[in-house]
Design brief:
Elements (H helix, E strand, L loop, with lengths): L2 H13 L5 H16 L6 H12 L7 H20 L4 H21 L13 H14 L6 H17 L2 H13 L3 H21 L7 H15 L14 H5 L7 H9 L4 H12 L5 H11 L9 H14 L10
Helix pairs in contact: 1-2, 1-5, 1-15, 2-4, 3-4, 5-7, 6-7, 6-8, 6-15, 7-9, 8-14
Length: 317
């Protein structure tokens, strides 16, 4: 096992905890700056972080936006420079998420476990990250990763990530993937019954949540340079829309075309698999954490690092 990919995987996993996100971001910034002092950062990272930095021009919290721009630059830099050993990276992810899994299982009835994830949706998004990554790893790691995915998607009882997981199955069905989703669904139903949260999947609850989210989507005002990444709440005094593209339009303004264009380029050039890309796009219509929150950015990074131009293992296809 190679050390650097494993450490990076562990950092990404621990960084999804709200209690340690800032500390992990500072470590990644230091790591990235150490690389940049002797080597140029990758062009996509410069373009993306530049767009974020420009959104600070009229941003509600410029210092926070500039910090996120530096963090994104260093995150992309480290991601592109570490040795390409997906199994080592995945071992680090599993090791880093271990403490969270333990607490989640012990306190399965807690909707927002203190000090760990931002909320139940974030827990489920980490579980979805593991499931999306599975085709890139081999051997027993697939089983361990599947256990992490099933536990987190089940314990969270969160509708959006589960809908994305179902879409992932439908887009590229196979017997193995169907069996895996069945296990995830059993975990979802078990923990939902244990917590008394299964009412969240009833039509009435979904309709009510959709109404609230529709109001949030129309809560801001579009401007040329945006509110600055991470500045929506300070600028509007309202909760963030649970829709990543809409939120980025509010926070980045015209510069939102940059992350959209980079993602489209990655899909078009087959740097990331189409089924994983579409799953992420669907997820982003239902959540807000991947935009402007370190914890959510790290989840997306974990998927992209693992799947970037990877060969899919035959066991899962």
């Amino acid at each position: 096992m190679k050390t650097a990919p494993a450490i990076f995987g562990a950092l990404i996993a621990v960084g999804t905890f709200v209690s340690s996100a800032i500390a992990v971001a500072l470590v990644i910034i230091a790591w990235g700056l150490w690389i940049i002092r002797r080597d140029l950062p990758p062009v996509p990272g410069v373009i993306l972080s530049g767009a974020v930095a420009l959104s600070a021009i009229s941003g509600a919290v410029p210092a926070q936006t500039l910090f996120l721009a530096l963090f994104i630059l260093c995150l992309v830099t480290v991601s592109s420079r570490i040795e390409r050993d997906i199994n080592s990276f995945f071992v680090g992810l599993l090791a880093g998420i271990g403490s969270q899994l333990y607490v989640l299982v012990i306190h399965a009835g807690d909707f927002r476990p203190g000090g760990l994830s931002l909320n139940a949706s974030q827990v489920a998004q980490v579980g979805l990250m593991f499931w999306l990554i599975l085709p890139a790893v081999s051997g027993r790691l697939q089983l361990a990763g599947y256990g992490a995915a099933a536990l987190q998607l089940g314990i969270a009882v969160s509708r959006g990530p589960m809908a994305a997981a179902l879409a992932y199955l439908i887009m590229k069905p196979s017997k193995v993937r169907a069996l895996m989703f069945s296990g995830i669904l059993i975990s979802f139903l078990f923990f939902g019954t244990l917590q008394g949260n299964l009412h969240r999947v009833l039509p009435e609850s979904i309709s009510q949540a959709a109404g609230v989210r529709a109001e949030l989507i129309n809560g801001g005002e579009l401007t040329w340079t945006g509110y600055g990444l991470g500045g929506y709440i300070e600028a509007t005094g309202q909760d963030r829309p649970h829709n990543v593209p809409v939120l980025l339009a509010y926070e980045l303004g015209v510069f939102a075309v940059v992350p959209a264009g980079l993602f489209a380029w990655a899909v078009w050039t087959r740097r990331i698999p189409a089924d994983a890309a579409i799953t992420l796009l669907l997820l982003w219509q239902l959540v807000e954490e991947p935009a402007g929150r370190i914890e959510g950015i790290l989840v997306t990074c974990g998927v992209l690092v693992a799947l970037w131009k990877r060969q899919v293992q035959p066991q899962l296809e």
